[in-house]
Amino acid sequence: xxSDSVPGDPRPRDFVGYGAHPPHPRWPGDARIxxxxxxxxxxxxxxxxxxxxxxxxxxLTEGGGGGFKGRDLAAESMFEYGSRVGFxxxxxILRQHGAPATFFACSRVLERNAEIAGAIAExxxxxxxxxxxxxLRWERHQTLTRAQEEAAIHEAHATLTRLTGEAPAGWYCRxxxxxxxxxxxxAHGGFLYDADAYNDELPYWxxxxxxxxxxxxxxxxxxxxxxxxxxxxxxxxxxxxMKDTFDVLYTExxxxxxxMTVGLHCRLMGQPGRALALTRFLEHVAGHDRVWxxxxxxxxxxxxxxxxxxxxxx
Length: 314
Prior knowledge:
Elements: E1 33-41, H1 73-96, E2 101-105, H2 107-112, H3 114-125, E3 129-133, H4 146-164, E4 170-171, H5 181-188, E5 193-194, E6 204-208, E7 211-215, H6 235-252, E8 258-265, H7 266-269, H8 272-286, E9 291-293, H9 296-306
Parallel strand pairs: 1-2, 1-8, 1-9, 2-3, 3-4, 4-5
Antiparallel strand pairs: 6-7
Helix pairs in contact: 1-8, 4-5, 6-8
């Protein structure tokens, strides 16, 4: 891949990627598409006054009072809905459809909610689900020194491993990564990949610390965060967008298979009027053959086996 960079740039930009001839991923079962459902487990890790922050996080909520400093009890309550109700609704839907998924989990959530930690540990133990590290807590890494960011990533990895019984396969920052994040993740040695990119529909190898490093891109396009940004108002609209994305990729997959990520949040998609979109989507997927509905870690392992790291070491 060619890139646009300046000498010493730790994160050169790449506008070319695979170009007109992406590799055939050879998904298992000759699948035309790999689909990964992601459940973001964040509630209880977000900035809040009781945790010493200056104000309450209001991102990806239903809205509310807002517009003031200090503690916003309305926003706090909306986050609590995600862990009290939304998480369990989404987990039930996944189980009802036998659908594998990946939890993007903030470690602080699991420390505070033993029941959710236990459910994720059980799900991971079943082999149907896996975990991607989503932060020690919901914070902007750009406010941290490199040493602080490294400590946070290491602590999150250790805590998630302890509470779920399995090391998180990958890493994804709650907010955008810093120019140091990928190097820290690579140096740690306990992650298969990072998902801190939105620039492709296939995994790809890049370089971190002079060694090959795997990226499994995420998506903010097929993502329920758009409900909080007024892009979607109903389950039908979100389902239609998911369906259209799937259908285009499935058609293209006859000759050039890709991966599709669906990003969901417990406090958003966990609402009954939105959760229906997930049910409809899983039913739509089930109506097609040659679909690999899978965990994100399995996509990473497949890519490593099918397209080994350049130079033979990752």
